[in-house]
Design goal:
Number of helices: 5
Bound molecules: zinc ion
Helix content: 10-25%
Radius of gyration: 22 Å
Shape: elongated
Distance between the termini: 38 Å
Order of helices and strands: EHEEEEEEEEHHHH
Strand content: 35-45%
Length: 167
């Protein structure tokens, strides 16, 4: 069974009762990524979504929990961070041509909605905190190869320590 199918929810029962809310729980690995961030497949994504029928569609609302691996755009250090994104979107019964999310009959595909909310909720760029230097690829190896006494005399040593401290 493809991973994506875990996001497919039959919503005919909700659609036929305006104002009715149904809770769905989703727990599945995903392979989403954007720029300097990748959503890790493990632990799996967890979402507790309320689906509520409103005129014109279904409101999709609830928290989505993921663990994201970030890669610093300066020094390429990687770290993982847990993120919770509160989703609030409308899936329309009819395609209004406004790039909104649209139901496929009685079937709601939550994947594009949750993916967009998670990925668009990320910062534009990943940066070490505290800030690192702009070392770039390979710089760390060269620094580590240098003798300790030589390192202490360079301005890079202090910056390197900053990056190490963030680990
Ligand atoms: Zn960095």
């Amino acid at each position: 069974m493809p991973t994506g199918s875990r996001f497919l929810v039959p919503v005919g029962d909700v659609l036929r009762h305006l104002g009715r809310t149904r809770a769905v729980h989703i727990e599945t690995p995903v392979d989403w990524s954007i720029e300097q961030f990748t959503v890790l497949p493990q632990p799996p994504l967890g979402a507790d979504i309320d689906l509520t029928a409103v005129p014109g569609g279904i409101v999709v609302r609830g928290p989505v929990e993921v663990v994201v691996r970030a890669t610093c755009g300066r020094c390429l250090r990687q770290w993982d961070e847990a993120r919770v994104v509160d989703v609030s979107q409308l899936a329309e019964t009819v395609d209004e041509g406004d790039d909104g999310y649209v139901l496929d009959g009685d079937l709601l595909d939550l994947e594009p909605i949750l993916r967009d909310e998670v990925l668009l909720g990320l910062p534009l760029v990943a940066r070490c905190d505290p800030p690192c230097s702009q070392l770039g690829e390979g710089a760390e190896t060269r620094l580590n190869a240098a003798a300790p006494e030589a390192r202490s005399d360079t301005p890079f040593a202090a910056l390197q320590d900053l990056c190490d401290a963030g680990d």
